[in-house]
Specification:
Elements lengths: L7 E8 L6 H11 L3 E12 L4 E6 L2 H12 L6 E4 L5 H11 L7 E3 L14 H11 L5 E5 H8 L10 H12 L5 E8 L5 E7 L2 E8 L9 H14 L4 H17 L18
Parallel strand pairs: 1-2, 1-4, 4-5, 5-6, 6-7
Antiparallel strand pairs: 2-3, 7-8, 8-9
Helix pairs in contact: 1-7, 2-3, 3-4, 5-6, 7-8
EC number: 2.7.1.49
Pathway: Cofactor biosynthesis; thiamine diphosphate biosynthesis
Pfam families: Phos_pyr_kin
Amino acid sequence: MQNQTFPLILSFGVCDPVGAIGVQADCAAFAALGCHGLSAIAGLLVSDSARIENMYELDSDWMAEQARTLLEDMPIAAFKVGAVGSALHLAAIAEIVSDYPDAPLVLDPFLSALPDAGLGDEEMLSALRSILTPQATALILSQSELGRMAELWRDGADGKDGDLEEDVAELTSSGLHYVLVTGSRDEQGACSNRLYDAGGEVARVEWQHLPGPFLGAGNTYSAAFTACLARGMDAPQALVLAQEYTTGALEHAQRFGMGKFIPSKFFRP
């Protein structure tokens, strides 16, 4: 027997009975990439492989108690924050992670499978921007999701390419290290994930769009990116390996029921 050697990652998010998204999916991807996942649950989903029917929030104090109990016992290599139910959850998470400034913090707060895409009101978007992104290593979101956030500081923000670098600069000016914009398409239709810091684009990785439909592709990517940071990679390295892992997981996806394909977390790049 030996003391713990795998990096430990604490994931804040929802509990999905399918295991396609949320903390169960995170933990599976962490394990595939040599990390061990811990969880603090913010909500319970009612779902199948086709759709999410409902989400029931757990009290933010209960979630915080889960996290504090784990943190008093174990050293954490990184944090991941997924979709949560309210601004109270975001505030509780922000208070907790502020005690661990050296651990990478990855934010993936939008969940398109939810009826409200995971951040349903301006209060949550404002809380994300003001109290969590200034502490974060990376914020992962699509260009349209960046456009939604940009409504906080721009008139008529629509997330178009002409606004993207200005919006990234707005976020990084608060202390956020990186913005990772996923699923961008160029004029030829090629897909890419682009990593930005305060100076602009620092890296990108291109990938071939797969038809699907998939449930949990974005969750798989953000979990893989977090695991790479927990293992000591820098963000540009994590960008590439996370995409390699996600592409393999999608290529080996399985259809569990009558709904969408679930990425195979057992793929190893």
